[in-house]
Amino acid sequence: MADQNPNQPKIDVKNLKDQAALLSFVDDLIEARKDPNITDKNREQMRAFLLQQVNEAINTHLITLLSEDEQKELDVLLDKDVSNEELDRFFQQKIPNLTVEIATALLNFRAAYLFPVIQKDLEQQKNANQPSQQQNQSQSEETSLPPAPVPTATGVKVN
């Protein structure tokens, strides 16, 4: 017979799945950023930090979508220390497109976290293209036709 201890903490499977998905998102971010400062020694610490930051970004985004009265309702719920299921229900009732808004928060976080990498890549691309643009410009100057004749007072002057 299974242990029916009522004092045993209840495991929130949905919350665990959500956190696992967010952890996978964080791992993808770390991989995409290719930060040389993230080593095997500090990877777990960085994962935990980014997971916390992602959760905060989602929560902050969702709270900004609530009206002032809805924020007061949320404060009451948080003061009562309600379950995650009750909080999920609250947000689903108050924000009809909740999934889209969570995805928006994730995309905004990803863009902010990866911006230095994207900026660096764009600069490298720009620098890589500049010499070829100069070559193309000098090649086009070599193969271009001479300037057109300029009319003068007495007729046409040929250059």
Structure description:
This protein is mainly alpha-helical and about 160 residues long. The chain has one domain. Helices cover about 70% and strands about 5% of the residues. The protein contains five helices and two strands, in the order αααααββ. A two-stranded antiparallel ribbon has the order 1-2. Strand 1 (about 150) and strand 2 (about 155) form a beta hairpin. Helix 2 packs across helix 5. About 5% of the residues are buried. The model is unreliable at about 140-150 and about 150-159 (pLDDT under 50).
Largest sheet: 2 strands, antiparallel
Number of domains: 1
The percentage helix is: over 70%
Rounded average pLDDT: 79
Q: How many strand segments?
A: 2
Radius of gyration over alpha carbons? 30 Å
From the N-terminal CA to the C-terminal CA, the straight-line distance is 104 Å
**Beta-strand percentage?**
under 5%
In terms of per-residue confidence, which ranges show pLDDT below 50 for 5 or more consecutive residues? 139-148, 150-159
- Structural class call reads mainly alpha
Number of helices: 5
Q: Which sequence of strands runs across the widest sheet?
A: 1-2
Q: What's the order of the H and E elements?
A: HHHHHEE
Q: What would the principal axes of the Cα set say about the shape? A: elongated
